[in-house]
Specification:
Elements lengths: L3 E3 L2 E3 L3 E3 L21 E3 L16 E4 L2 E4 L8 H13 L4 E6 L4 H12 L5 E5 L16 H11 L7 E4 L7 H11 L3 E4 L3 E4 L1 E2 L4 E2 L5 E5 L4 H14 L4 E4 L5 H9 L4 E4 L2 H4 L3 H16 L13
Parallel strand pairs: 3-4, 3-16, 4-7, 7-8, 8-9, 9-10, 10-15, 15-16
Antiparallel strand pairs: 1-2, 5-6, 6-14, 11-14, 12-13
């Protein structure tokens, strides 16, 4: 009843752990049966190992959190060597979330992942393009199209592009990525935001701005998922502030094939299991045979 299909792969349910909030699954193993999840998106991976940003990394705000992690990760090769064997045993859909600061970094990482058991690549284009003055690859359509076209020949795996909500136009961005060879779209990533320490009279984060996530962004993320679903005929993975099964159903009605849960994992490590159970109960109570019946009904 809750099974969904993303391209050629069938997920047992539409609930996926979002990148950056779930590590590689190990941290949550004692709280839940990870095999019950529809999938897990890895922590953001880069070609070189990264230690992440100095200073404060997490700051709570009204109905959400801000983060400035800095893509701390063990590197693509470190992931393949040390983390992927654990994830392979879970029997769930594995997405490798890939980031980078140059086109060359993306290409090397994608090519390395292509030879593994990973089910799909989630291309994080919210990373700063150091050769273009630090502007993220996902802000301008031409930059996003360029990076997708560049990596496409280096993998036969499904390429799911994760869009930034800070893009110039989310519909045009989704269309540009589809034209460049994306097999699917996930959205949204965090919103660029600012918090100020009024007593020390300075920004809370060393990098000044940081990524905002949590229930406060849900209505905007929901609108963007609908916009993207109307712009492209590709599988959409929706995320942004989902913390209940009702939220998940809204995203599916807006056009999402699957959903990801991020910030909510921090305050309830078992929340994804609650969402899965809630979706199942809703389908039964409403006499809905499968999620395809309600997908994209909001136009």
């Amino acid at each position: 009843m809750t099974k969904v299909k993303i391209l050629d792969h069938e997920l047992k349910n539409p609930v996926i752990a979002a990148s950056g909030t779930f590590g590689f699954g190990r941290e949550y193993e004692k709280y839940m049966d990870l095999s019950k999840l529809g999938g897990i998106s890895s922590k953001g991976l880069t070609w070189e190992k990264r230690d992440g940003n100095p200073g404060l990394r997490i700051h709570e705000t009204a109905a959400g959190i801000m983060n400035s992690i800095g893509l701390q990760n063990p590197s693509v090769k470190g992931f393949i060597r040390d983390e992927l064997p654990f994830m392979e045993k879970l029997g769930t859909y594995i997405l490798a979330n890939i980031g980078g600061s140059t086109t060359e970094d993306y290409i090397r990482s994608v090519a390395e992942i292509d030879g593994t058991s990973v089910d799909a690549i989630e291309l994080n284009i919210s990373c700063p393009n150091v050769k273009e003055g630090g502007m993220a690859f996902g802000i301008r359509c031409q930059d996003a199209e360029s990076i997708v076209r560049a990596v496409r020949p280096f993998t036969t795996k499904p390429l799911i592009v994760k869009l930034s909500p800070n893009a110039e136009d989310i519909s045009s961005m989704a269309y540009s990525c589809a034209e460049a060879g994306a097999d699917g779209i996930s959205l949204v990533n965090t919103f660029n935001a600012l918090a100020i320490d009024i007593y020390n009279r300075k920004p809370v984060f060393n990098n000044v701005t940081a990524g905002l996530s949590g229930p406060c962004i849900k209505p905007i993320a929901l609108r963007m998922v609908r916009d993207a679903a109307m712009a492209v005929d590709l599988p959409i993975i929706g995320l942004g502030g989902i913390q209940t099964w009702q939220d998940a159903i809204e995203f599916i009605m807006a056009g999402a094939t699957a959903i990801q849960v991020g910030t909510a994992n921090f305050f309830n490590p078992q929340i994804m299991l609650d969402i899965i159970q809630g979706i199942e109960a809703f389908l039964v109570s409403e006499g809905i045979k499968n999620l395809e019946e309600i997908r994209g009904i909001i136009r």
